[in-house]
Structures are given as structure tokens and as C-alpha cells.
Amino acid sequence: MKNNNLHNIKSSGFKTPDNYFESFNETLLPKLKDKLELNKATGFKVPDDYFKTVDDNILRNINPKKETKVITLFSWRKVAYASAIAASLIFMFNAVFNMKDEVNFNSIETASVEDYIITQDINVYDIASLLEDDALDEVNYTESDFSEKNIETFLINNLNIQDLENLYKE
To answer: Could you say which of 81, 116, 122, 161 has the lowest number of CB atoms within 10 Å?
Structure first.
């Protein structure tokens, strides 16, 4: 029941002496000086201009201006080496496993030989100079069948109309 009137209390119950706060500093400081005698010689000495340069020293040590070495994972040199090795392996694989029979004169297409002779501008005399006399003697021209029917069939199969017209015009 004593607590019912707490909100109606106008004073706190504490009193301070008159002019206490005005004279507080004047009375406290002499008492503190008497009780605490400050020893000026602590054994520690601060270097000259320490507090002027401490900020710069701290910042210099925290943020060094060294550039770090960057190592890339995929450099162009490594990619070039890898692609060269891969290409050579593919080439070797194709060369070994895709080998066909040896190339001989019978396996060459007639059209390829004709194109080569035309593009290289080889004439009959050049070919004849490559053949030996013995090889020319072995060819038997008398066994060839040059009948009129065979010649006509050959001309029909191998000549076109314009070639025939040009023959008759001459």
C-alpha cells in the first residue's frame, strides 16, 4: 500500500549543499593532487615526431603497393600446344588406319591422267620420248580391228554433233 502514492511524490528526498556544483572543481582538484602524485618518469620514451608519422606508417604497412602475379588458367600458348598435339594425333590416326592399297597405274582413273596431260601441256612427242623403242615394238598394231562398223560406233559414242559439223566443214 505504500507504493500507491509513488507517482505523486514531488521531491526525490536528496539534498545537495549550497553552491556545491560551483565550488566542486576547486575542492576536488587539490585533494586529487595530494592523493595521486604523478610520476613523470615512467621509463617509456616516445620517439620524436611519432604522432605525426604514425598514420602514414600504418597505412603504408596495411596497403602495400605490390602488384600480385596473375596466373591465367587458359593461356593461348597452352591452347596452341594442346590443339597442335590433337591435330597431329588425328593426322597420325587417319594416316595409319585409312591407308588404302598402293597406288599403281591401273588404279588411276583415265580422266585424271587426261586432265594432268592437258593442264601440264604435254604433247605426243614428250610422251614418245619417255617410251623406249622396245616398248613401242611390243605394241602390235596389226591385231587392231579397224572395221568400218567399229569406227562408226566409236564416232557415235565419243563425238558430239558440233565435232561432226566441224569435220564436214573442213
So the answer is: 161
For 25-43, the DSSP string reads HHHHHHHHHHH----S--S
Q: DSSP per residue over 91-124, as a string?
A: HHHHHHHT--SPP-TTTS-HHHHHHHHHHTT--H
Between CA 144 and CA 80 the distance in angstroms is 63
Contact between 26 and 20 (Cβ < 8 Å): no
**CB proximity list for 127: less than 8 A, separation 6 or greater:** 117
- The string of pLDDT tens digits covering residues 107-145 is 777 778 778 877 887 777 777 777 776 666 666 556 666
The helix or strand, by DSSP H or E, that contains position 24, with its residue range, turns out to be helix 24-35
Tell me which amino acid residue 77 is: R
Rounded to whole angstroms, the Cα distance separating 61 from 55 reads: 10
Q: How many CA atoms lie within 13 A of 26 on its CB side?
A: 5
Distance between CA atoms of residues 136 and 128, nearest Å: 9
Cβ contact 141:135 at 8 Å: no
pTM of the model: 0.21
Output DSSP code: residue 15: -
